[in-house]
């Protein structure tokens, strides 16, 4: 903020008709540039809460008041904005940004020492990934071989990322055509594929820790699917069912609301639920699903759009999150007898988002 570049860009977007010459960006002197920014703000009707020196000095409270006033005066939002169907699909960059946000929320929820602002940038030194792995697979990281931040030498970062991939292979991740340097270079596709496998491993470990397996067979994606359908059926909703985690009928949101009601009958306010036939109704249901799941105590990181578009990975982890919350309640429950799966439980929350329906090797290769 101190060099006024962000202010100059913002005001040129919000009020281009109020710009004047010389432009703030063409001026190198910081005090003069800040003065031009404030003059621009004056012309669009914003009172001055600060002086050019306040901007250059980076005084937080005055800058906050200034930004708030700009937002109040002209925020660039419109009630008449064109409606875009979520199902139309997003650009590749938008899809990547959405997945990045989900993974960022998940990583920050793990309680690691470094707060993540952007996974593509903050994970490049390998240290954060090692911390994440140590959280979900304790004891797997060789800390003597790890390089702690700040890391200036590139090969030290590569060493960390190589250890990350080595552990990934030990955890049976699909790591075809990925090297430590790909993470250091910020390869988005490969980083997202690796993070998905970490998140999925975390979810399955949580369920495994509840002793949810039978005859040595650990829980699989199909077990989660069977459990969800059984809970909905047992609650009396015999017509509500999902065939797979990519079942297009899930976009209406009604199945997940039935599932949430099945695990806790009092949690859903049915007066707020729509039929889920139109896009607007589906979006309302999707937002309500996330709200109800979080109120229940599930750790949810997916977005309403993920439900509307029936993102396969997200559907799995949403279901697994609800299942994990249910199995940790202080009572014993059993799964479907056909699968011979049973579980015993104990106390509260958690799980994550993002998911696939069957083998995660397919997802890792995205």
Automatic annotation (TrEMBL):
The UniProt record lists the keyword ATP-binding: no
GO biological process: actin filament bundle assembly; actin filament network formation
All residue ranges annotated as the Calponin-homology (CH) domain in the record: 1-75, 97-203, 218-327
Name of the molecule in the record: Calponin-homology (CH) domain-containing protein
Coiled-coil ranges from the UniProt annotation: none
A cellular component term, taken from the record's GO annotations: actin filament bundle
Membrane-crossing segments per the record: none
Gene3D superfamilies in the record: Calponin-like domain
GO molecular function ontology, one term from the record: actin filament binding
UniProt keyword Repeat, yes or no: yes
Family annotation (PANTHER family): FI19014P1 (PTHR19961:SF18), FIMBRIN/PLASTIN (PTHR19961)
Biased composition (Low complexity): 341-358
UniProtKB keywords: Actin-binding, Repeat
Quaternary structure note: Interacts with F-actin.
Disordered: annotated segments: 333-366
Pfam families: CH
